[in-house]
Amino acid sequence: RRPEACAQLSPYRMAALDPLNVVPWLWVAEDAHRVGNVQGVMEAAYRASLAKESRLREYAFTQLALSTIPADWPTWDAVFASAFVLQAHAELRLPSYLPIVAHCSAESARDVNVRQTCDRLARVLVEAGDTLVDHGIGRRIGERAGWPAERVELLEAHHAAYKKLALDGDTLASDSGHGSCRQLLRNVRLALAHARDGELPFARARLAESGMTDADALKQLRM
Question: For 213-218, what is the mean pLDDT?
Answer without folding.
Answer: 94
